[in-house]
Amino acid sequence: MARAVWNGTVIAESETTVEVEGNQYFPPGALRREHLQPSKTTSHCGWKGDANYYDVIVDGQVNADAAWSYAAPLDAAANIKDHVAFWKGVQVEA
C-alpha cells in the first residue's frame, strides 16, 4: 500500500500506483480531492507531455504546487493519465 502524507494527513492511498522516474503516481480514485486544489502552474516533459499542478491543502496550510498530473499524456506515458504524483515535502510511503 502506497500513501502520500502531508502534515499528518493522508492525501492519497493505493495498492496500484505506477512508478515513473522514482515517483509514485496515484490513480484518480486513490486521491482525497478535498486536499487538492488546481493551481495555474504547468510544465512540459519531452516524453510525458504537459503537466498540471495542484496545491496540497491541510488544515488551512497550503503546500503550493506539491502535486502534478498529466491529463493528456503523450503515448509513452499513457499509463499515468490522470494519475497524481507528489513532492515538496509530501511524504510518499511505498
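Next protein, fold it too.
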Amino acid sequence: MTKLRVAVVGAGHLGKIHARLLKTQTEAELVAVADPSTAAQQQIAEQLAVPTVSEYQQLFGQIDAAIIATPTRMHFEIARQFLNQGIHTLIEKPMTDSVSDAQELVHLANRNNCIVSVGHVERYNPAIKSALELVGTPKFVQASRMSGFTFRSTDIGVVHDLMIHDIDLVNTIFPGELIETRALGMSMFGHHEDMAQARLQFDCGGVANLTASRCSYEAQRSFQVFGTDGFANVNLAKSTVTFVKVPGWIKDRQYDLLDTTPEQQAIIREELFTRILPKSEIEVPTSNAILSEQKNWITAIADNEPCRVTAEQGKQAVEIAQAVIDSIASHRWSKHDPQSTGPFGMIGSTPKKILPFRSVDDSEQRKAA
C-alpha cells in the first residue's frame, strides 16, 4: 500500500514532537520538515535524519498531507495555500485566531475535498474518556489550566493558548447551542490576556466554569465533571481519574438525610465517602494523545471520512473563544467608566450571547466523539 506523504511545517516544540511521532507511523512517510530557521533545520536533520526546507511552498507537488505547527498567526495563510493545492492538513490548536479565517478554512476544505483535523488533543485523552463514561449525563464542568509564563504562544492570549482545550471539550460534551458567555481577564506581561475566567451556559442546561492562567505560581491542569451518576476529577498532568458514585437512593431522593437522629447523622458522617459516596481511583490506560491524533487523521484520509476533531468543530472552538474574549473586553471594572482597562491592563464580565453556529449534520458526530 502506498504510504501517505506527509510534511511538518514548523520546527518548534510541537513541530519536533509531530515529526518524531510521524516517523513511527507505518501508514505515513515523513517527507520533510519546513522551517525558515537554519538552526532549527540543523536540529531536525541531526536528531531525526529528516530532509528540511526553508519555505513550505517547496513542498507543493511532493506531499499529500501536512501538519501545521507554526505560531497561530501563521495558521490561516499556510493552511489556505495547502488546501488550495488539495493537500490534507492537521492544524495545531487553535485553528486560527480569527472566526472569519476559520470559516474560510472550513469552506476551502469542503471545496477541495480535503480532510482537516484540528489539534485539540484532549479529545484523545483516555482519562477524559474514562471520566465521561462514568458520570452519566454531564451537567456541570469545572476546568483549570495554570502555568508559569513560558514566552511561548505570545502572539495569542491565554484563551486561545490554554482555555481553548477546555472550550473544545465542553463544546463536545454539552449538546445544543452556547447561549450565554460571561468572562473576565487580565493582561500581565504582553498585549493579550494572561489570565481568564469564563462561565459558559448551553441551551441543554449544561454549564462550564473555565479558568486559565499563564502567569501562575503553581502549574495545574484539572478537569472536573459532575453528571447524573456521579462526579469525576481528572488530573490531566498525571492522567489519573478519581470517581465518586452517587447511589440511586440519593439521586432519586428516596430518603431525607436531614430527617435523621443524631446517632444516624454520626454514622453518615463517618461513612460518607466509604459506603454512601464511595470514592475510587480509576485505572487509565497509557497512551500518547498526539500519536493517536495523527493516526486518526491518517486513517480518515485513507478512508475519506471525517476526523474526530473536524474543521467545523475547530471553527466552533474559535467562535466560543472569541465570545469569551469579547466578554472580557466589554467588562467595566468601574461603574463610572464606560469601558476600563483598569490596573494591570485588566480587560473583561458582561453577558454575551452568540448566535447558533452548529449544523444539524455535525450533531451526531459530536455525540460519537
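About the second fold: The first strand starts at residue 4 and ends at 9.
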